[in-house]
Amino acid sequence: MSYLKYTIAMKAITQLGLVLIFLVQSYSLYSQNEYTIVVDTISYSSSKDFFTEFRDDLLLSHVKIEENNTFNFRSTERYDRDFLNSVTNPLGSEIIEFRKVFVSEENDQTLKNGGQNCWDAALICNNSSFSGNASGFGTQELDGSNRGCLAGNENESSWYYLYVGTNGTLEMEVNPDVNDDYDWAIWGPFNTTNVNTNCPPTSSPTRCSFALPPCNATSWGFCVGYDYTTGMGNGATDNSEGSGGNGWVSPLNVAQDEIYIMLIDNYSTSSDPFDLTWGGTAGLDCTTVPLPVELISFEGQNKGVINELSWETASEKNNDYFTLQYSSDGIDWKDIEKINGAGTTSSIQYYSATHRDFEIGINYYRLTQVDFDGARKTHKIKSIDNSSNKKLLKRINTIGKEVPESYKGLVILYYSDGSIKKILQ
């Protein structure tokens, strides 16, 4: 072989190697596996209740639940049949069919609508229809005391609040843009005096739907025929429904100056939007309700030997003080500093604090705000990367898309040394 031919051949091999490396990186960072599993039996009251338990500790998105014990989902993780059986077996089920295929992710991103948490709930100012997106979630604010029919955690959620301007009945319809399973709940009525102490809610919802959409048609193992809407009205007489409901509960009879809190949650975790339409005879009003602390931002950055935390509030009501809390794992927390609040004010307030005694790696910080009467609320979680010997390459969300540091929710961090870490931002 001549030197020229040898050079051309080696160049081609090198280019092929680079292409293969690129493809492997693209697969791991921008793509997902699509899974279909069929289980032999379900001992739970419904398929949705079973799947809520199944998905609790897994990184899943684009969830579809079908008849005949069939479940479809996507994940950036590479699960095999044996591993998924280790999850279903304690739930009383055995996987009898298993399928996994590679899928590419779209690059489009629909902007979120609504607040990440109850304390930054968005005001729905009138009865006009609007389009929203519940992608991502903030602090998990549902538990056994307030979730009502909504089994499990928040999946992709948005918080809103409503101020009633005129008496009457209030109807509502949530219509997903694609074949997604949207759930929702409404708490109240509250007033300007007690709404602050009920955010996040402290009791069961007044109206609630956790219905599983009926699957009317399938294609390649996925449900494509939901044609599903949910809401208040449509002749319904029940106030709450579980996974076996039809998607509809009764309208609300509301009175002027009542305040309601609403959560809309995308169980399918697809980041696809919905349309919301109001009906009934009542009117909503643009009267704003000051929450105990309206937090504008909570930021953190490393500055050598210290981590610097800063936050701003747009308004405060009866705010005694903040406690800055620290965790090295996002689970166990300890108080590191107490910062006095501004009491009651409608002016922007600026706060800051520093922390030195942190671990090498990912460190977590959050704020607990305390009123003069002792009422406490925990706000945002902020993570700071204190890994001094490695560089962050990519930050990927649970559906395989690269996201900025400001993204709120569960993310996967890819580092230059080949390590991977999952954190909640």
How would you describe the overall organization of this protein?
This protein is mostly beta strands. The protein folds into 4 domains: 30-104, Alpha-Beta Plaits (2-Layer Sandwich), CATH 3.30.70; 118-285, Jelly Rolls, CATH 2.60.120; 293-388, Immunoglobulin-like (Sandwich), CATH 2.60.40; 391-425, no CATH class. It contains 3 helices and 28 strands. The strands form 6 sheets. Strands 5, 7, 9, 10, 14, 17 and 19 form a 7-stranded mixed sheet that branches. A hairpin with a 6-residue loop joins strand 21 and strand 22 (334-345). The longest helix has 28 residues, at 3-30. The chain is flat, with a radius of gyration of 24 Å. The termini are far apart. The model is unreliable at 1-30 (pLDDT under 50).
Quick description:
10% of the residues lie in helices and 44% in strands. The chain is mainly β and 425 residues long.
Write the layout of secondary structure elements.
Elements: H1 3-30, E1 31-39, H2 47-54, E2 61-66, E3 70-75, H3 81-88, E4 95-104, E5 122-124, E6 130-132, E7 157-166, E8 168-176, E9 182-190, E10 207-209, E11 218-219, E12 222-223, E13 230-232, E14 240-241, E15 248-249, E16 252-254, E17 259-266, E18 274-280, E19 283-285, E20 293-303, E21 306-327, E22 334-345, E23 349-355, E24 362-371, E25 376-385, E26 392-397, E27 410-415, E28 420-424
Parallel strand pairs: 5-7, 10-14, 13-15
Antiparallel strand pairs: 1-3, 1-4, 2-3, 6-18, 7-17, 7-19, 8-13, 8-16, 8-18, 9-10, 9-17, 11-12, 20-21, 21-22, 21-23, 21-24, 24-25, 26-27, 27-28
